[in-house]
Amino acid sequence: MEIKETFQVEYLAYDPIESPYFKVVSVTRFGWTPEPGDFLYGSSSVPLDPEIEQSEWPPSVCILHVFSSRTRQWEERSFVREGDSMGIVSEMRRDWPTEQRNAVYWRGALYVHCQTDYVMRISLSSDKYHVIKPPPGIEVKHYPQFYLGKSSNGVYCASIKGGCRVQVWNLDESSCQMEWVLKHDRDLSKWLLKNKLSIDHVQIMVEKSKDLGPCRILITITIIAIEIMIWKHQQKRKLNGPHKQLKTRNLHGALMMNVDPTVGWRFLGFIHAKRLSS
């Protein structure tokens, strides 16, 4: 079955603790097609097959191209779906193909963030895959910012909706029906107003922190909060001089530890490195 208006996106599957070798998995992404009523509706010059557009996606047997650093070759592999599909091909085209969608590799499986915000869990050892539907309330029409991440506790996803609401879920894989469990839900609008900030401040900081990867949302917001608290602390204590600056750096660390010890140790050095380079 040849599907028109598609392209491939490659994702890295690698864990140096697990193996010195890595794999690259090529996943299909669909070009955006305007719907009736959209400004560009009818502008596509490529005719689409109605029968194919109504077929389920992803298919029961998904053919993916996988590169292995061990063999240094690409190979075509068939992955059998466990569970239901996400929808049909035409529904995939309603989501922008150029949106950033990352993947995480955890315990031998690659978790790929796909169009319409479902996650494709690809087991490279068993040649099977599973469709994980997005968390409740995550819909394409709401334009959520959705990012995958991982920790020792498994796979996470974080999102910002409306520029202010931050939510974090943990993927529960204890049963056959994998589901997202809400771990964090905060509305930052009151906090922004209290500190005389706007949504634009959060968005600008997020854009400036792209090299942080999928966890940049929570880290960036944490950094903003820390900067505000430090500024208030400096105004109150009127800190100046090398000795006082050292206290400020210690305050950075203390505040980070109060938010999340893991984030504190991992990104404390990053914050100061960014300051020196700016």
TrEMBL record:
Reading the lineage from the top rank, the first entry is Eukaryota
What name does the UniProt record give this protein? F-box associated domain-containing protein
